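Many introductory courses stop at the sequence. We go one step further.
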Amino acid sequence: MQSKPIVEGIEAVMKFCNDFRSPETIKEYSKACEAILTFYKEHQQASYEADINNQIRYELQLPSKEKQSLKYSGDRYTFRILGMLDDYYANQPFKATYPAVSRYKHRLEPFYQNLAEEFRSSLAVKKNTVAMLYSIARDFFYHLQQLSVTDLATINQEILYDFLMMKYKDHQGC
């Protein structure tokens, strides 16, 4: 698969915004697009990369004083544009709305985020089931992150049981 320039996606996002958003909102989208392009340039990446978008999402979830690369603080616009870019490069039409913030309750470090993304891409289930399974997997990888487990071969019954008891302590099966 040949990668496409990030500028192409940004231009498509801005065209969509110019067609469907108010002038005030377009200014905010423009600032967020510039911040995303700057992040890509700082990482010497000219083509769209899902991993770079995930790094930006990760950084957006950091407290303000820990944000290093993103100079623009319009997180809600940046999150929306990242979703739009993901759709654009997946050859999906833009949606009417995108989440303004991360819909997940825990922030994953890049190592664990990559594991979660690998899990999601490996799923062979119907599309409407993916989000639920991915959410559970993210919770599990967050549990591993809290335990500092980096070698998946060391996951044992105790770790799994602790996760289930933590996550589903009120479930009748536990």
